[in-house]
Specification:
- It is built from nine helices and 29 strands.
- The strands form eight sheets. A seven-stranded mixed sheet has the order 1-19-21-22-18-14-17, sandwiched between helices. Strands 8-5-7-6-10-9 form a six-stranded mixed sheet, with no helix packed on it. Strands 20, 23, 25, 26, 27 and 29 form a six-stranded mixed sheet that branches.
- Helix 1 runs parallel beside helix 7, helix 4 runs parallel beside helix 7 and helix 5 packs across helix 6.
- It is elongated.
Amino acid sequence: MQTQLSLLQARSAIVASLATTHPPVERVGTGDIVELCGRTLAETLLAPFNLPPFANASMDGYALRAADLTGHDTLPLQGRALAGAVAIDAGGAALRLGHCMRITTGAAMPQGADCVVMQEQALVSADQMHVQFKIQALAGACVRKAGEDFAKGQLALRAGTRLGAAEIALLHAFGLTTVRVYARPRVLILAGGDELKVPGERLAYGQIYESNRASLSALLRALGAHVITAPLMPDRADAVASALTQAAQSADLVISTGGASGGDADFLPRTVRELGHVNFYRVQIKPGMPALFGEINGKPVLALPGNPVSVFVSFLMLAKPAVELLCGRTPSELAPFWLELSAPIQKTHARREFLRAALVRDAGGVGVRALEGQGSAMLRGLIAADGLIDLPEGECDLGVGTRVAYLPFRGLLD
């Protein structure tokens, strides 16, 4: 068992342990495609046809040949082209020389036309027979070329892509009726502590409502996992052993909160060792140091601390790469922005620390400041934070204007 690992060592150990795990592939039909947000694509998709399939107008206006307007400001109006229909004209869909045609956004360009002048730059005569243009036309203006988004056969989406709203829109734009995705990993959440009660139950003195399972469920579902929430574990060695054994039988990953420190009722580290194997215990980060990673019956077990902020931060740092791997994706890296501090920070310990932080916008640009109330049991800071300041290992005294690594929640939670 390894102890006191750095964050990078701990993340590497988790990734190495799960690197050979291959999630099963599911084939999902049309009715389910809109429900795939957060799932992972299991096949590489090439564009089945040009997108858009034909040249079309990007504005309501008038289709014409740019050369026909050179030296003129008025052209005869030939007919109209509507979205979803062939151009309407007694002489056919082709644009006659020296003429223009009324066109709506998305309508196919009439044969012979090479540009569109938007309707705000044109004036139709009273008899609806001619159009006067206020500007000179440019070939290609306000025209979406066939295949300008995707050409037929071009790479559209790679296997391993997490499907969001944009990717799902593309699947529909290509008219796909089925798509292959990786199955959602089953992640079981355990939480323990005699002081914990479920919301709705009556609190006795010394008891609190348990919130970690709810926050973990939200984080896991956003990553694309199937969440299983187990009942609260009493602070007894036999109860912890029973819960862990059952969890390892029904889940692809077990995540627990609480009971991983060194207190009298913290049975989890010893129980994991007795039932299976502990890869590492304790990580040099704050908050979240008493984290454990091991396995029971071949199933990975990640034990996180019990305080809500510690759970939140250690999940992003340690559990997220594991879940991403089990979803069929490459684990995301910690990719900070570098911003200047708008208030000083003094760090008096050796662990790598993640401070809840807020962005500061002023005339000089965007900076960042650590929020007050950094206690690992204080949810106020999570609610008010835009992200985390990532302070390196070792003591440091950072003044105003010092550039620090900043991890926005927008990236961490995606």
